[in-house]
Amino acid sequence: MDDVSFNQDFIEFLGNATSPFHAVKVMAQQLTAAGFVQLNDIEAWPGVAGRYFSIRNDSSLVAFVHGTEAGPLEGMRMIGAHTDSPCLMVKPKPEKHHKSYQQLVVEVYGGALLNPWFDRDLSLAGRVSFTDDSGTLRKQLVDFKRPLAVIPSLAIHLDREANSSRSINAQTDILPLLGCGDEIDFRALLATELAAAMQRENLDVSVKAVLDYELGFYDVQPAALLGLDNELLAGARLDNLLSCYAGLRGLLASDGRHSSLLICTDHEEVGSQSAAGASGPLLLSVLQRLAATATDYAMLVERSFMISADNAHAVHPNFSARHDDNHGPLLNAGPVIKSNANQRYATNSETAALFRQLCASVDVPVQSFTVRNDMGCGSTIGPITATAIGVRTLDVGVPQLAMHSPRELTGSKDPCRLAQVLSAYVNWGEALAAAPAAG
């Protein structure tokens, strides 16, 4: 696995994974191509060695390898990430016609950086529910792909304080502009796009009426390598599709001997409190299906390990004082172990030690991050999973800049390095039981 080909594949993945729904669709396609079998949640699952995956709400995915030498009860090597990213979601009644301009009313999803959304070519992607001519309720993923809208900045001449004290009102200042002219019917617009999508996919499905949707704007500028020596990678949704993709590549590299699992859940950016989020029952239900009894389940959890992968804050060259002097991760210096004594991350000394050992086994450098004592600390799905399941958990991530911007930045070497470590993890020859106590 080399970083050049990895980055090429990752950039292609980002271009197609324009919403959590599309991210899961692309991952499912790659899993199917690699021989994984999709399971039906309302049917019994096979209890034999093999490669399987399951989808929840079209936006969360669990894929696992039932090992040939070590089944799930011997311990699962688990990887967790999330499919969602901060964005601007279209509201249910979005049409706004003002001064002859056609606009859409949006809702901010997650902790988005709002300033970078101005003056970007924006498109729409997500899931749409509709009825066909027979009255049957259907659903379909939609991605307009082409630029549809823009949020134009206010000229400096009309806001002389823009560079010193301007704040953004999320209700009034970030309405995307679609064009000029008469009022639009957004659902009719969606119906036209749905019909075109059906035709492109050779689906003989009619579209009678659009009933509802979950659609988010995204920047159409593709991800790209940049820097004097292509040492940087810029793109949308790096947080946290980078971890999803690295985890996917890690699982696909499994030799099948040991049991391993990848879970990519939705709604992390808003607290994970949903049926498809990390606080929901998805992982618990999967593990309980793999363990026939309560005793089996308890043994499975005690013998398992979770690596929660979510990007880390790299030192910003213009704002280096925002980091603890001894814990400022650098781009292209390896994945980061994230620690917090107040349990905002689930890492402890034992789980961190295993990750350091894994990194050393594949000659990958590793870094450490803790937040400054006088700043608040974010969190991840790690503590949520550790609390809900009781599994030993580690929080790691690739360092990045511009987190929660519509265009983020990371080093071009670290994504592949994380995938290499995760590949070593799922194929690790030793059991993942706790280290023995010193004599």
TrEMBL record:
Family statement: Belongs to the peptidase M18 family.
Taxonomic superkingdom: Bacteria
EC number: 3.4.11.-
Keywords: Aminopeptidase, Hydrolase, Metal-binding, Metalloprotease, Protease, Zinc
Gene Ontology MF term list: aminopeptidase activity
Gene3D superfamilies in the cross-refs: Aminopeptidase i, Domain 2, Zn peptidases
Record protein name field: M18 family aminopeptidase
Pfam families found in the cross-reference section: Peptidase_M18
Cofactor: Zn(2+)
